[in-house]
Amino acid sequence: MANEKCKHELCVCAAQADSEYCSDHCKDAVDQDMTEIKCDCGHPHCGA
User: Fold this and answer.
1) DSSP state at residue 15
2) 46 to each of 2, 16, 23, 29, how far by Cα in Å?
3) How much is the pTM?
4) SS3 content of the chain, % helix, strand, coil (to 5)
5) Closest Cα partner for 15 from 44, 24, 40?
6) Phi/psi at 27 (nearest 5 deg)?
7) How far is residue 8 CA from its own chain's centroid?
Protein backbone atom coordinates (compact mmCIF):
# COMPACT_ATOMS: atom_id res chain seq x y z
CA MET A 1 0.00 0.00 0.00
CA ALA A 2 1.40 3.41 -0.96
CA ASN A 3 1.91 6.10 1.64
CA GLU A 4 -0.46 9.01 1.53
CA LYS A 5 0.71 12.59 0.98
CA CYS A 6 2.26 14.42 3.90
CA LYS A 7 -0.39 16.42 5.78
CA HIS A 8 1.65 19.64 5.59
CA GLU A 9 -0.27 21.72 3.07
CA LEU A 10 2.78 22.89 1.08
CA CYS A 11 4.62 19.56 1.07
CA VAL A 12 4.51 17.18 -1.90
CA CYS A 13 6.27 14.26 -0.17
CA ALA A 14 4.74 10.96 0.84
CA ALA A 15 4.15 10.55 4.55
CA GLN A 16 6.35 8.18 6.53
CA ALA A 17 4.83 4.75 7.13
CA ASP A 18 4.29 5.46 10.84
CA SER A 19 3.23 9.12 10.55
CA GLU A 20 0.94 11.53 8.75
CA TYR A 21 4.02 13.61 7.87
CA CYS A 22 7.23 13.10 5.89
CA SER A 23 9.45 14.74 8.51
CA ASP A 24 9.55 16.33 11.96
CA HIS A 25 9.75 19.72 10.23
CA CYS A 26 6.34 19.26 8.61
CA LYS A 27 4.77 17.95 11.81
CA ASP A 28 6.19 20.87 13.80
CA ALA A 29 5.09 23.40 11.18
CA VAL A 30 1.50 22.17 11.43
CA ASP A 31 1.55 21.75 15.23
CA GLN A 32 2.96 25.27 15.73
CA ASP A 33 0.75 26.83 13.04
CA MET A 34 3.84 28.12 11.21
CA THR A 35 3.27 30.12 8.03
CA GLU A 36 5.61 29.16 5.21
CA ILE A 37 5.90 30.27 1.59
CA LYS A 38 7.37 26.91 0.57
CA CYS A 39 7.98 23.65 2.33
CA ASP A 40 11.35 23.42 4.10
CA CYS A 41 11.29 19.71 4.93
CA GLY A 42 14.71 19.29 3.31
CA HIS A 43 13.81 16.60 0.80
CA PRO A 44 15.47 17.41 -2.56
CA HIS A 45 12.28 17.15 -4.65
CA CYS A 46 10.16 19.32 -2.35
CA GLY A 47 10.06 23.08 -1.81
CA ALA A 48 12.32 23.91 -4.71
Assistant:
1) P
2) 18, 15, 12, 15
3) 0.79
4) 15, 5, 80
5) 24
6) -60, -45
7) 5
